[in-house]
Amino acid sequence: MTALLVVLGVVVVLAIIGTLAGRRNRAREAERREHALAPVRRLAFEDVTALGEELQQLDLELAGRRLDEGERADYQRALDAYEAAKTSADAIAAPDDLREVTKVLDDGRYAAACVRARVAGEPLPTRRPPCFFDPRHGLSVTDVAYRPGGGAEREVPACALDAERVAAGADPDVRQVQLGAKRRPYWDAGPAVEPYAAGYFASSMVMNAVFAGLLISAMSPGLDGMDGGMDGGFDGGGGGYDGGDGGGFDAGGFDGGGFDGGGFDGGF
Question: The organism sits in which domain of life (predicted)?
């Protein structure tokens, strides 16, 4: 009987040890995943913040103006896209979720461009992919020849300012990402970039013509590569984000810099 009790006691102790070890492993895995997702979320909120600031500026431009039906519809589309992007960014649980955020942001920027065109009495802008050098620059206006990373020359979409820079032989305003002690263009930033780029460029030839080759060399499978490579946080290049407060962004309670679309009364 004593021997049986000893055996049972050992079994119970081993079971407890196994349970505690399993909990610790699951906790470490959850912590690792959250650590790996942190830069992905920062990247998303950074872009949401940029659209919020653009809509704030548009709100000021439209102050006191009564919008017609088309202008009002496009303006509402831009506001809805901003809100949807905020919601999607808050819900990011895996790197691929970033794709939906950037896709909606691209829709919002196009809607805002349509508002400006309508107000100015100009034709609606052609739906083009965003600027390759930094999607926050908005719609591209032309394609330019560029050698990303010193590789093969490719035709990439560019905003007006970056097109001028490239034509003049100057460096375009490339979005930079901080990887440890180094800064790299966003397209060479590892696994988080593929869904980020896919949301912006999936509907164009850019993903196949430009990003496919670049991302294959930059990516490593799973979250491990991102955890090891993106530990240093993001530097938003021209946007001024350096891993600090993001210009008013707090990952725990993002409000897009205070923009809620409520300040504009032009026809609503």
Answer: Bacteria
Task: Tell if the pTM clears 0.85, that is, is over it.
Answer: no
For residue range 147-166, list pLDDT tens digits in order.
876 677 888 899 999 999 99
d(C-alpha 2, C-alpha 81), whole Å: 71
Mean pLDDT across the chain = 75
Q: How far apart are the first and last CA of the chain?
A: 84
Burial category of 266 from C-beta neighbours within 10 Å (exposed 0-12, middle 13-18, buried 19 and up): middle
Contacts of 17 (CB under 8 A, 6+ apart): none
CA–CA gap between residue 176 and residue 87 (Å, rounded): 25
Asked if residues 135 and 102 have their Cβ atoms less than 8 Å apart, the reply is yes
- Which helix H or strand E contains 56, and what residues bound it? helix 2-61
3-class DSSP state of 139: strand
- Name 203's Cβ contacts closer than 8 Å, sequence gap at least 6: 129
